[in-house]
Amino acid sequence: MESNNDQQIQREARRLYDNREELAARICDIIRKDGTLQPLPGLHLSRTSIPLKRVHSVVESSVAVIAQGSKEVWLGENRYRYDPFHYLLTTVELPRVSQVLEASLARPYLALRLELAPALVSSVMVEAALSLPTAWTDVRAMDVSPVDGNLLDAFVRLVRLLDAPAEVPALMPLLTREIIARLLMGKQGPRLRHLVMERGYTPHIATAVKRLRQDFDQPLRIEQLAQELGMSLSGFHHHFKAVTAMSPLQFQKRLRLQEARRLMLSEDLDAAGAASRVGYQDASHFNREYKSLFGTPPMRDVQRLREEALTFSDH
User: Fold this and answer.
1) How far is CA 6 from CA 3, 9, 20, 151, 160, in A?
2) Dihedral over Cα of 257, 259, 263, 265: its sign
3) For the ranges 73-87, 142-156, 184-198, which has the lowest average pLDDT?
4) pTM reported for the whole predicted model
5) Which residues, in sequence order, are CB contacts of 289 under 8 Å at separation 6+?
């Protein structure tokens, strides 16, 4: 009996190894230069040949898998590290900070991310006869778990579709549903189920996040938002921070500053113009908060980013 168990463990280890190698080879083939690519709707591929500095971004509900290298993500003060043996699940659209840790020319960082639409998650839950969580508690919107063989195999089959475009319309929806089903039945199933809860507080917080994303340049009226969601002010603060790891004000500030950085980089606005566009009335206040988040004053930060981009493109 022990011999059979050992053989099964060895087979599973070999299967995981082969799938990781195939996934890395296919991503490397598809995306030949450092950068990101969306070859299919909702499927994002990434490659980088050098460890990167921290990047500020907003990520939607999704699952991320690394084929080669490793990465860290910060949500508020919480840090999550993942690699080819772990996946990252995000269930609410959030501002985050991420950093590629392991990457080289010989072994570039290679990863994929698949968006998870709440309606599709709900549909798979119904189809699989999975119940909603019985305890309506706050669940952090992000975590890392080990990748099992069946889940990784489904991702490999999804990426294989890129070699067979004619099969994409029929098979991509099926493979996406399989991935969601395996996530729902795995260790992070309860976290993903909270994405579609019809009761409890998580849907209210998801609604609040959506509102803040849409109106980030407007004055934040927390009392009014809490009232519209049918929550007390203290309850709203508590549940918002439990899910997003940030207060509503911190969340809005992150969104504003990240958008201001994008405006200065892509639309060549000066600091005052960007500050005004994202809702700051006081330029000096904007400069202080920008430096606190990104480490340097706005225009110096943008100049550095442009110089780094030129250096990177020359390589």
Assistant:
1) 5, 5, 21, 22, 30
2) positive
3) 184-198
4) 0.77
5) 253, 257
